[in-house]
Amino acid sequence: MSVSNGHEPISRSRLASPAEPQRPAAPANGQHHRVPRTVAALCEQFSAVCASAVDPLEIASALEFEGLGDQTAKRRYGYPDVFALAQDMYFRVKREPAEPDVPSDPWEANGKLRPLLHGLLYALPGVCFPAAVGLLIGPGVEIALIVALLAAWSMGQGLAYLGYIRLGRTTDMEQTRRVLRIALAVGLLVVAAALAVTGRVVHAPPSALLFGLGEGIYMLGAGALMVLGAEAWLLVALAPGVLYSAAFLALGRPVYLQHVAWGTMATTPLLALALALIFTHRTGPRTGALFDRQEWLGTLPAVGFGLVAAGLLIFPVAAGPHGHGGINYAALLAGLPLSLSMGAAEVSLLWYRRRSQRLLRTTREMRGFGTRARLILVAAVLQYMAAAAVLTLIAAAIASKTGLLHPNLTFLPQLAAYGALGAAMFIALTLQALGSRIFPLVACAVALAFEISFHGLGVTAQIVACVDLLVVVGGFALVVLGRAVRHAY
Amino acid sequence: MDVALIGEGTYPHQFGGVSVWCDQLVRGMPDYDFELVALTATGSEPVRWSLPDNVTSVQTMPLWGPPPAYRRGRWGRSVPCPALRDLIEILLASPSEAQDRFGDVLREVFEFAQAENLTASLSSNWAVRLLSETWHDWRLDSTEAAPSLHDAVTAMQLLEHSLRPLSYPPVRADVAHAVTNGLGALPALAAKWRYGTPMVVTEHGIYMREQYLHSRDVPFRWPVRALHLRFLRRMCSLGYREAELITPGNVYNKRWEEQLGADLSRVRTVYNGVDPADFPASETEPDVPTISWAGRVDPVKDLETLLLAFALVHREMPEAKLRMFGSPPQGQEAYLERCKALASDLGLGGAATFEGRVEKIRDAYDSGQIVVLCSISEGFPYTLIEAMTCGRPCVATDVGGVTEAVADTGMIVPPRSPEALAQSCLTLLRDAGLRRKLGAAARMRALEYFTVDRAISAFDEIYTFVGTGLELPNVELEDESDDLTVSALPGRDEETELLEAAG
User: Fold this and answer.
1) Are A67 and B415 an interchain contact pair (Cβ–Cβ within 8 Å)?
2) A43 to chain B nearest CA, in Å?
């Protein structure tokens, strides 16, 4: 089966090597095996095999496997050999193949809880930002943070890609762990290097650089744990930082607690890293090829997409309300729920895959499939957008309640732009999950380039870019995902 | 001379009977250079055997890993494979028809695979549509297990993965020796089509039989299984057709080969062998009457019958002991527990012991006065010829190549009948003279027919003749079938009586 998606491990052993066939269990009673007297009785005993048999040789193989040889076929049933007996049995028993158990949905197993957990995990670190404001004073701080975010997201995407690919390719967890460890090391190096360079260039304060590094460490560690299925442990890692930040904020940012708060915030990424290192610890001997050129080349689109997606998210915030700097509060208001909504995006994506699989199994002809598959895609997008809208409203309510921000109607264009961006991101993620990785990357890159070049137009540029992006990837998805072959797993 | 050794799921990435044999072959023929072609699963399996110097290269063809790299692939676009329609139609036709066409069509697919990107072509929507339209009206008898789109997608995937070896550059050698049939024949066929390299096909087990058995465990719907098994069956038949020589590991396999269309005049049996140095004659036997068994603890070995038979022996001969050596493969531990439970239910107490794995297998044979093999299904078991080389008399079930191996140097019983097994064991345990006689005869037979040297010299001859294009002399290298008349086998009458008694 093709390694079609970068997000779920594929169940293996579809066709094990013939050198190691599986053996059905022997009859448990161990009594003297009653060999039936007549062919009819034999057909009865082997009815399951005969009804599902593909040709008489299959029946012959089953007979021989149960110890019934040419001698018995001759003496007991009067056939020249087992093959003639099998031939007769094949024609005596009607073909009524048993339907195999539909394999358990790889997307059902996750259920609703895991994506919601993911949503929580994406969002919680956000609490640390307001609490860390005291750290983040100085020239070039925004740039340092942006660089950190870009580096962390892109490296995180690359790491996740490598991890999932290896996970899907082999049941040997050892290989996946090693790959993740190496990706972790490379990612950390890149983030550190990027921050060091930035620090040199814009003279950002070391505290901001360290904060950015911590962010990078957290995201990479979190990515590794997610691939290994141990993301629940992230709650442990997040606990000190988040709890302290929340308390810090609730108490109104008392100055005397500032240093302590920063200290505990630092423990979060370090804990995440420690957990990641523990879970990727080498337990067995080194086996298997680690470096596969094709795999490593394949990370480039993933890294690129992480970069571009982070850019699309951050740029309006950094560029300011009119494109000339300052903090764009509307963007902030819209941007944060968008990150939260990634959990909802996962739910919608899983729903989409389940429904389209079911459609594939129940449809017999291509003609019927295309339209219905497209409708399912549209439904999934709408589901996601509804969830994102709800989250945004909740965020707006909280913001106005706590007085952090005062949303008003002038925020609407920004919200609309982020809404379009969210939908486009969801479609891009779906396309990537189903194997199209280059097109979404190129489309998002073009949109980002457009936004950057026309940043003088402020929010209009963003709206134009995001809506166009939505139309383009949406159209592409409608064409490409209407094809049956995309939905194989 | 250069020999390409081609195998699927075996040497040098796995352990097992076939890879042991390959290792013996490669090491035993230092004058030949071997190019290994291994069909593997993911492509990241490590090489498990240490390779001798005469192995000049190892080419891995992963069936389930990354697709082969294409030097001139058209990026993003896939070219429809013109031979695909014919291929599908042949697979949907009855297996006895159009076998000649299959070879031609597969060759067209090969040429396409060498020039274009076969993986992209078969993974495209066009291919799935073609399949779903062509098999739309495929009905079975009177019932319908009508194929869905999902089946079409799955079936195309299986086909694409199976045909991957055709996309690699064909191996260059003087002889292409496929040690497994089926997909293992693809690289050999590719070499034959491109360079005219002669092919030899060896079979230890029967590929197609294993595939039928295995396919029952895989959760595919009938149309998918049917298409895939038909493809494999055609592949096996094609392998037999195109091979200069077919060398089964025992005469018993010939029956299946014949069913699948092999030309019997091209079949030469070459038995597996063991190194006599590893299995010297057992000098002494234990004082206590002991039966020993060695092997993988697996339901096909039918330890339940052994335990039931031993219970009968134990009743007659309370001082007798049963020692079983070996461990279950991964996943069969429950079977071992069941056997242990059965042993205690039968009240055998300490008389029947499960010894687990043993360092040197010959200690297992040495520890008993007789060696028992009571499997319900076997190919040509190494355990048996090893025990025979040690000079131990064997009692074994009449399955697979067992009777050929043992002939009249041991006792043959029908499978799954504890009474017959107990009778034969008691006969031997009570008669030291008979044991000595049969043991010596067994050792003589093994040393004559079942040594590694004999297998190797057979292949030396085969490679020489096949590689240079000469006809092999018509002397059969090994021909046991004529020796095995019904009357020569002891215990036959008992079998009839038992069958009748069983009602």
Assistant:
1) yes
2) 17
Lookup: tokens for A138: 């100085």
Q: What confidence tens digit (pLDDT) does each residue in A296-307 have?
A: 888 888 899 989
pLDDT tens-place string over residues A236-290: 888 888 887 777 777 777 777 777 767 777 888 888 888 888 888 877 666 666 6
* CA distances from residue B278 to A165, B295, B361 in whole angstroms, order as listed: 45, 17, 10
- Chain B interface includes A174 (CB < 8 A): no
- The DSSP code sequence of A56-118 is HHHHHHHHHHTT--HHHHHHHH--SSHHHHHHHHHHHS---PPPPPPPPPTTTTTTTHHHHHH
Q: How far B452 CA lies from chain A's nearest CA (Å)?
A: 21
Q: For position B393, what pLDDT does the model report? A: 93
Res. B241 pLDDT band, cuts 50 70 90: very high
Q: Is the pLDDT of residue A31 over 90?
A: no
User: CB atoms < 10 A from the CB of A401, how many?
Assistant: 8
- Which pLDDT does position A19 carry in this prediction? 39
Alpha-carbon distance A166 to nearest alpha carbon in chain B (angstroms): 10
- Report whether B249 contacts B202 (CB < 8 A): yes
> Which stretch of DSSP H or E encloses residue B3?
strand B2-8
Q: What is the mean pLDDT of chain B?
A: 86
Inter-chain residue contact A58 with B142, CB threshold 8 Å: no
A14 touching chain B per CB within 8 A: yes
Grade residue A108 by pLDDT with cuts at 50, 70 and 90.
low
A-chain CB neighbours of B157 within 8 Å are 1-2, 488
| Per-window interface: A 197-216 vs B, CB < 8 A | none
3-state SS string for B231-273: HHHHHHHHHHHHCCEEEECCHHHHHHHHHCCCCHHHECCCCCC
Q: Within chain A, how many helices (H) and strands (E) appear?
A: 18, 0
Phi-psi domain of B391 (left: phi exceeds 0; alpha: psi -120 through 50; beta: other) = left
Instruction: Please judge whether A22 and B233 are an interchain contact, meaning their C-beta atoms are less than 8 angstroms apart.
Output: no
Residues of B in contact with A84 (CB under 8 A): none
Average confidence score pLDDT of chain A: 79
Q: Say if CB B128 and CB B21 are below 8 A apart.
A: no
The confidence band for B2, taking pLDDT boundaries of 50, 70 and 90, is very high
| CB within 8 Å: A76 and B499 | yes
The pair of structure tokens assigned to B412 is: 């043959």
What CA–CA distances, in Å, run from A81 to A43, B460, B492? 16, 35, 18
Query: And the tokens for B176?
Result: 């292409």
Single out the residue of B331, B356, B352 nearest to residue B343, CA to CA: B352
Say if A369 is an interface residue toward chain B (CB within 8 Å): yes
Distance CA A281, CA A275 (A): 10
Q: What confidence category does residue B95 fall into, taking pLDDT thresholds of 50, 70 and 90?
A: confident
B300 contacts A23? CB cut-off 8 A: yes
For residue B227, which of B213, B237, B215, B239 has the smallest C-alpha distance? Answer: B215
Classify the complex by whether its ipTM is higher than 0.90, answering yes or no: no
Residues of A in contact with B65 (CB under 8 A): 169
